[in-house]
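Example 9 (inverse folding). The structure is encoded as follows.
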């Protein structure tokens, strides 16, 4: 079972994991809620499908080497440097699209920036997941919930800005869209800056220092070299840098393969239909309203699912596997709604209901599997378990991004 460390109660720790759950995803959420803007700037480039490839491929490439990255660089290096760079990229993206809109060069420049953003984001995401895998499950839940809150918040900000700016009769619809997206991205960049300062405060907190002491002593206890001052110091150094070699990674994977496989399958399912296939369903509303309302509904129930996923005693791996299989039915509904005008399935209420169920099951299954997998692993290897889980997640995302391509033009 997952070891429940007796760490100091800390509001700062709760805020930290909530904020970084959002911070690690806010760049991509900004892009998702601005897809209509990028689609106008780069017509014919299928940005709803191709932007995701750049981000998710980069994330996937990080995960096999994440254990070595964590061994070479400390937590602050893996958080602060990537976040500063990601903040700069987020703030620059709408200006880049405005300056080079309609050109192939501009499109590929943005694809390159998105690739870098995905690479750096996943270094931070994997690092925080690795840490929460060694902590009581509430911190894993808070981190995952933070991601959902960020998705909802970004959708609300986009809707609010668009509504306010579009009321000015002197501004065209295209100008209102461009202004709202620019402000929207700058807000996301400032949130990244807030996360950097929050991290600097967190690493000085009693909670973090108690965590370091407890994990060091746990690993030290399992070390064979505990006699004499010199050997004790050597063991302490090894304890602070636990084994992250390939044998350890494969050993952890062999014990959690079922859980990692279900994580991967969940995200193959998600990104096969989200957001591209989902957004092809006709709706009697503006494209920007449809985009943000669908994203927000998904994010709200994604968040609710994650919150309920923390109640460990109410599920087991069999229940989670059954939910993953049930999601194939929802995927079928998405495809049918996008491709055909059918009674009931083609209605607006059924479309939103399908998004609701898809978002809820996605959140619940994700949280449950990220809690269940580390339970199978020894305390000193739980950080590696977190990295392996993220590998499953990114492998699923990349696969789903490519399996979505055949559904790019259902109408």
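The amino acid assigned to each position is listed next.
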């Amino acid at each position: 079972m997952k070891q429940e460390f007796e760490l100091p109660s800390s509001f700062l720790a709760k805020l930290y994991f909530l904020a970084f759950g959002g911070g690690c995803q806010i760049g991509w959420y900004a892009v998702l809620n601005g897809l209509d803007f990028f689609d106008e700037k780069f017509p014919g480039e299928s940005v709803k499908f191709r932007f995701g490839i750049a981000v998710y491929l980069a994330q996937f490439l990080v995960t096999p080497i994440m254990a070595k990255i964590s061994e070479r660089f400390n937590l602050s290096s893996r958080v602060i440097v990537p976040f500063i760079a990601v903040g700069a990229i987020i703030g620059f993206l709408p200006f880049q699209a405005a300056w080079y809109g309609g050109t192939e060069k501009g499109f590929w420049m943005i694809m390159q920036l998105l690739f870098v953003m995905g690479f750096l984001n996943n270094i931070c995401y994997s690092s925080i997941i690795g840490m929460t895998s060694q902590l009581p499950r509430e911190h894993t839940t808070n981190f995952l919930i933070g991601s959902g809150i960020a998705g909802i918040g970004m959708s609300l900000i986009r809707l609010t800005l668009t509504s306010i700016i579009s009321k000015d009769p002197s501004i065209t619809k295209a100008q209102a869209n461009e202004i709202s997206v620019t402000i929207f991205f700058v807000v996301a960049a400032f949130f990244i800056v807030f996360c950097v300062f929050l991290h600097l405060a967190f690493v000085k907190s009693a909670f973090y220092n108690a965590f370091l002491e407890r994990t060091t002593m746990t690993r030290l206890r399992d070390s064979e070299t505990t006699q004499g001052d010199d050997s004790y110091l050597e063991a302490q150094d090894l304890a602070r840098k636990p084994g992250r070699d390939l044998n350890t990674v494969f050993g952890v994977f062999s014990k959690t393969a079922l859980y990692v496989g279900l994580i991967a399958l969940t995200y193959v399912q998600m990104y096969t239909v989200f957001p591209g296939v989902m957004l092809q369903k006709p709706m009697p509303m503006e494209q920007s309203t449809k985009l943000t309302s669908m994203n927000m509904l998904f994010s709200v129930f994604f968040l609710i699912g994650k919150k309920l996923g923390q109640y460990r005693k109410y599920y087991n791996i069999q229940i989670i596997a059954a939910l993953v299989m049930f999601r194939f039915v929802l995927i079928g509904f998405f495809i049918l709604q996008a491709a055909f005008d059918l009674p009931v399935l083609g209605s607006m209420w059924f479309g939103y209901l399908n998004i609701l169920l898809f978002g809820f099951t996605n959140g619940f299954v994700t949280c449950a599997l990220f809690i269940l997998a580390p339970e199978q692993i020894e305390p000193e290897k739980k950080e590696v378990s977190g990295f392996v889980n993220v590998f499953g997640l990114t492998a699923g995302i990349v696969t789903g991004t490519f399996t979505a391509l055949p559904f790019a033009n259902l109408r």
